[in-house]
Specification:
Layout (H helix, E strand, L loop, with lengths): L6 H8 L5 H12 L3 H6 L7 H15 L4 H5 L1 E4 L2 E4 L11 H13 L5 E5 L5 H9 L4 E6 L2 H13 L4 E5 L11 E6 L21 H4 L10 H10 L3 E10 L5 H10 L3 E7 L5 E7 L8
Parallel strand pairs: 3-4, 3-6, 4-5, 6-7
Antiparallel strand pairs: 1-2, 7-9, 8-9
Helix pairs in contact: 1-2, 2-4, 6-7
The structure holds glutamine.
């Protein structure tokens, strides 16, 4: 690409190598312009630095790197979130988890909510915004993920307490009215992990890494210790894979949860399961 490249030519050329929409979004990102400006002034020149930066991003996109990492952000629940390769890119199905949790929290006076394995913080941030009366805590084992989550909370004015550690570990003996999580659940070795940009995402956020396993190792851990961190009548809600609802309901029932149920995402797939601990003997 020459220093004299104009916006229109750059867009046209890139659209031969990657999706036209992706080319446009990368061009807007690199040049700091809007779609309208791109249409109105295709003759506008790009600087040499912009042209080189755009060329690099187009090549990375052509090699499969997700657009969200290239532009450093992704939309979820009507807000724009910072993302980088330390965190999963938000998936639309996770809105179901947020909606179910928010509905439950909105019926409570001053609910205490914890989001385990918060990643980019999308679930915790949206819950804090939708339920201002709630006290929201979020944990993650990855310090790099927590940096992203903190940036997202600050960006959206969400009061979230972030704690670093493995699942419940940083919580001591604290109890909550609602535990939510979108844990890693893709079965280790699932061919899906090689597609659609997933190789660029943090593997520890996608899969439990158990060779020959069923992908449910993290969900088992979440279920097993939940009763030590739930208030009487507290709820546990977890996202899981498209074919795991029955297994997750069984885990919850075996652990003594009540009103165990699964809910369907926008694609009609049972995507979140949960239950509550009322009548369970409080464990030490
Ligand atoms: N739903 C995501 C996928 O299939 C995985 C998200 C997760 O592991 N929590 O790519």
């Amino acid at each position: 690409m020459t220093p004299s490249t104009c916006l229109g030519d750059a867009w046209r050329q890139a659209a031969r190598r990657i999706e036209r929409l992706d080319a446009r979004l990368l061009l807007e990102h690199v040049c700091g312009c809007t779609h309208a400006e791109l249409i109105a002034h295709p003759e506008r020149a790009m600087s040499e630095a912009q042209a080189a930066h755009f060329e690099e991003l187009v090549s990375r996109r052509a090699a499969g790197e997700p657009l969200a990492y290239l532009v450093g952000s992704a939309w979820f629940g009507g807000l724009e979130f910072v993302v980088n390769p330390a965190v999963l890119i938000p998936r639309p199905e996770t809105e179901l988890l947020v909606d179910l949790a928010a509905r439950r929290a909105q019926g409570l006076d001053k609910p205490r909510i914890v989001d385990l394995g918060t990643g980019s913080g999308i679930v915790a941030v949206l819950l804090a915004r939708r339920c201002p009366q709630a006290g929201v805590t979020a944990t993650d084992i990855s310090a790099a993920a927590l940096d992203v989550a903190r940036a997202n909370a600050a960006r959206h004015g969400a009061a979230v307490r972030f704690l670093e550690g493995d699942w419940y570990a940083p919580l001591g003996d604290e109890r909550f009215d609602l535990i939510v999580s979108n844990p890693p659940y893709v079965v280790d070795g699932d061919p899906h992990l090689a597609l659609n940009g997933l190789p660029f995402e943090p593997p520890q956020a996608l899969s439990d890494g158990v060779k020959g396993g069923d992908g449910l190792a993290c969900i088992r851990r979440l279920v097993a210790a939940a009763s030590r961190h739930l208030e009487p009548d507290g709820w546990l809600l977890m996202e899981h894979g498209y074919n795991q609802a029955l297994a997750v309901r069984e885990l919850l029932s075996e652990a003594g949860f009540r009103e165990v149920a699964s809910w369907r995402d926008g694609a009609g797939i049972e995507r979140v399961s949960g239950g509550h601990v009322s009548l369970m003997r409080a464990e030490a």
